[in-house]
Amino acid sequence: MSRLFDGFSWQDLVAWLPDLFAGFLISCQVAALSLMIGIPIGLICALGVQSLRLPIRAPLLIFVEIGRGAPAIVLLQFIYFGLPHSGLALTPYISAIAALTWSTAAYTSEIIRAGLDSVPAGQKEAVLALGLNRRDGLYYVLLPQGMRVSTPALLGFSILVFQSTSLCFTITLPELISRAYGIGSTTFLYFPALAVAGLFYVAVCLPASFLVSYLEHRSSAETSH
Amino acid sequence: MLEEFFLILRGASWTVSITLLSLAIGLLFGFPIMLLRSSRILPLRVLAITVIALIRAIPPIVWIFIVFFGLGTGVINISPFAAALAGLGVIAAANMAEIYRGGLISIQRGQWEAAKALNLKPIWTWRDIILPQMLRVALPASATYAIGLLKDSAIASTIGVTDIAFQGARLTQETFEGLRIFAMVGLIYILLSLPIAWLSRKADFVLRAKVAR
């Protein structure tokens, strides 16, 4: 065990922290932007794949199925390494946000769709009986109830998005893992550097996951009586 | 184009073996972790909760890097394949423990009480009463997780396992046909996930038919 920390001293840690923290902030930015853009697109997809018009439904289904079916790392490489060959070169930062937005939109569309499906049929019939138009019915009746059900799952997925920013290492985005790996390759203190980077993830994801399981517990307790 | 498809497909054996083996590690080690997590002894339960949460809080790529670069430089000599298995296996064990537990807590108290009333030994209680019901509930979530693992296995390409994602990235650099290559890579992953989904639906159907009244 001690060999893992051979040559490591606490001064090293102090020297690394500003660099790692800068990477951490990039990870946070990418995750936050991907979620802020991705979830609204996910909502649009959730509504769109239920459309009766094939020209709307088909492209959205393809978008969702590729976003969910292909590994996030392949989406990242597709956008960063693949698109330039067809004339669209993006920076690592933009590529990271684009790829994770795609993945977020695809997964959250399924989460939101499940939430909307859980709204009792009587509510939809009530919307019709009251003569509300589709938009008002959705906005005032179905979405508030559906999104309430979806919220714990959306938060749980947000943790996964934050974790998947670590994949952006492969497209040279200077996020947390890139920096830890960089420190490792110059000092050969791979283990301590990666362990500290791991602790950054723990510091965010551990409390967040406990919060999510508390919310899940609470919402399932609410619906059970 | 067909030639490129088969070049990428050469990585499939690595992708499939990483997925299946790390799933096997998860299925195996998930069980004792689940037992600890459901233990009546509080310190054991707290230990299991902490370990599971800690494992899941760290992204897969970090686990794989810690094993491959962290342990691999200086401590033990480890191949990229073994490092990927160890990293993904650890995460799979934690996740499978939670999936098993979901199955376990779905079993009603009466089942335990009935087993006790019939004076069944614990081993028979588990084998004949608890496990069949628990696994049936855990199956859909396990299949979903297996598909997730298939996609997570692509991370192994970052440490040099020549899987599908690796072949795709290499071919892109050689041919400058990124759009087409990555479309094929994505398609292959989707195609690979179809048999898992199909098997799970089939197994679910069979198991459901068994208990349907």
Summarize the SSE layout with pairings:
The complex is a heterodimer of chains A (225) and B (213).
Chain A (H helix, E strand, L loop, with lengths): L9 H39 L5 H16 L2 H11 L9 H26 L3 H9 L4 H31 L11 H12 L2 H35 L1
Chain B lengths: L1 H8 L2 H26 L4 H16 L2 H12 L8 H26 L3 H9 L4 H31 L11 H12 L2 H34 L2
Helix pairs in contact in B: 1-8, 1-9, 2-3, 2-5, 2-7, 3-5, 4-5, 5-7, 7-9, 8-9
Written overview of the protein:
The complex is a heterodimer of chains A (225) and B (213). Chain A is mainly α and 225 residues long. Chain A has a single domain, classed as Orthogonal Bundle (MetI-like fold), CATH 1.10.3720.10. Chain A contains eight helices and no strands. Chain A has helices spanning 10-48, 54-69, 72-82, 92-117, 121-129, 134-164, 176-187, 190-224. In chain A, helix 6 (134-164) runs antiparallel to helix 8. The radius of gyration of chain A is 21 Å and the shape is flat. The mean pLDDT of chain A is 90. Chain B has 213 residues and is mostly helical. Chain B has a domain at 14-161: MetI-like fold, CATH 1.10.3720.10. Chain B is 82% helix and 0% strand. Chain B is built from nine helices and no strands. Chain B has helices at residues 2-9, 12-37, 42-57, 60-71, 80-105, 109-117, 122-152, 164-175, 178-211. The radius of gyration of chain B is 20 Å and the shape is flat. The mean pLDDT of chain B is 91. Chain A binds chain B through residues 3-4, 6, 65-66, 69-75, 77-78, 81-86, 163-164, 166-167, 169-170, 177, 180-181, 184, 188, 190-191, 194-195, 197-198, 201-202, 204-206, 209-210, and chain B through 53-54, 56-62, 65-66, 69-75, 151-155, 157-158, 165, 168-169, 172-173, 176-179, 181-183, 185-186, 189-190, 193.
